[in-house]
Each structure stands twice: as C-alpha cells, then as structure tokens.
Amino acid sequence: MAGTVSKAIIGRKLGMTQIFDDQGLLEAITAIEAGPCFVVQKKTKAKDGYDAVQLGFWATKRCNSPEKGHLKAAGRELRYLNEFRLDDIGPFEVGQALDASLFEKGEKVDVVGVSKGRGFAGGVKRYHFRGGPKTHGQSDRHRAPGSVGGTTSPGRVYKGTRMAGHMGNARVTVRNLEVIQADSNRNLILVKGAVPGAVGGIVLISRKSARKRR
Fold it and tell me: Rounded to an integer, what distance in angstroms lies between the CA atom of residue 121 and that of residue 166?
C-alpha cells in the first residue's frame, strides 16, 4: 500500500448487515474477517531502503517450492501476502500472529479491495451518460455517446475519453470508515458503511498515521 500507516491487517469481506448504535439508530455495517495474519518478512531501511512488514493470510496447502521457501521462516503456508509500510516495525517479529485486537472501536480506517467486475458496459451504465434524443427521427441514439473528438482540431480522440469498456474489477480505496466493533475472539471487525468487492473478497485494512502540518 502506498503511504505510511500505523497498523494494518489483511481480511476477508463477509457481507453487510445492520446493527443499532448506542443512540438506538440503525446503522449499515460491513463484517470483515480480519486475520489471523502472520508476519512473513521484515524489511528495514538499512537493508532494503525502507521499513515495511509483509503479512500473510489464509492457510493453504497448495504452495509451490519457491513459496514454501519464502514462508519457511514464518512456519506457515499462506495464500495471500501483502506488504505494508509502517511507521515502526520494531514490535513485529517474523512468525508473529496479528488479529482484530489491533483495532479499537471508534477508530477511522481505510479499506482497500477489488470492486465487482461488471464486464463490458456502455457509457450510460459505466459513466451515467444521459443518452441521445428519443424523438425527431433519432431512432438509434437512445444509449449512444455523443461526439468523442473534433475533426480538424484536435483531429484525434484524447486519451482517457469516457467511452464504453470494461467496468469494475479495479482496486478501490474507501477512506475513513469507522470501526464499530473489533472482536478478537472471532477475528471479526465491523466497519460502518460499505467496502469494495464481492462477499468473500480479500480486503486490506489500515489506519493512517497522524499527518504533520507543514
């Protein structure tokens, strides 16, 4: 993940539900299975040029030989690996287990996931285009895009022009979601609101470091 964080963990989206908060208001929340994750590797500024911790999640028995060699120090075979640049990697040791107890109720976290893939989509669905006129002889312009470029000037279509194409299946970050509950006994974190991806998708949960004012 880009940037520096104070704490982070890998999890799996379980789905959405509703709970009542302390004021009796109904809140939409997302349940995430957070860990247990295991420290696979530590990277230091002296050796690697930056400080980071690589975490592994989800036990598996299908690792190949290079993967087994990389995971040997952690003593476990893990399916998902992700590296986090942390402020302080001192408290972490290879093989150490991390769970939902890292986070506390009321904290603000960023959640990264891969959005649901929608396949090939047109401009109306993908970018909420209005569509063309539905009268005055326009029989085939209802969901078609408008002009995508000039003729003589610029004489081409600019890169990034919004058109039909592959929709979704992209890395999405949702920032400042509130932790409603962190249950280390069940490795469960409840966050307020929605997180990207389908049920069962892998997500990265992190808490940003306090930014210093310039």
Answer: 6
